[in-house]
Design a protein that fits this description.
Structural class: mainly alpha
Number of strands: 2
Number of domains: 2
Shape: elongated
Distance between the termini: 29 Å
Strand order of the largest sheet: 1-2
Helix content: 55-70%
Number of helices: 5
Largest sheet: 2 strands, antiparallel
Radius of gyration: 26 Å
Strand content: 5-15%
Length: 136
């Protein structure tokens, strides 16, 4: 972990909380704290935040592991469902060749909605199974 780079990121975060200026001495002790009037953060608060920041950044993901969201977003599930529908479009058109365009669209939308839900449920099950395998 590049301490100076992390410190710079931390200071940028502190600025969003009302810290105008902050420094560190050669020992790494926080000095020269200047705050906006509405900022209630003190030296002790910032020291604790900095230590927490460092611990959080030190949490290394093992090589070969990929951090994944626990849930598949609605947007991605919808996109996957549309792609899946496009793969069966000609079969769908053939099966519903006598239906009106409105009826075909209703069926297509329902199919995509159900497929998106299936993708989300399967994704969730996959993530849960993977988590259980790492717990043991």
């Amino acid at each position: 972990m590049d301490i100076q780079k992390e410190w710079d990121l931390f200071v940028a975060h502190l600025r969003t909380l009302g810290v105008v200026k902050i420094g560190r001495n050669a020992l790494g002790v926080i000095t020269n704290l200047t705050r906006e009037g509405n900022c209630s953060l003190g030296y002790n608060d910032i020291e604790l935040m900095w230590k927490t920041w460092q611990v959080a950044k030190a949490q290394v993901v093992q090589e070969g592991f990929v951090v994944m969201p626990k849930l598949l977003s609605d947007e991605l599930a919808d996109e996957l469902a549309i792609d899946a529908f496009n793969n069966i479009q000609s079969m769908f058109d053939y099966e519903h060749r006598g239906s009106t365009a409105t009826h075909r669209e209703e069926i297509r939308l329902r199919w995509c909605k159900n497929k998106a839900r299936d993708f989300q449920e399967n994704y969730k099950a996959m993530i849960e199974a993977q988590e259980r395998s790492h717990d043991s």
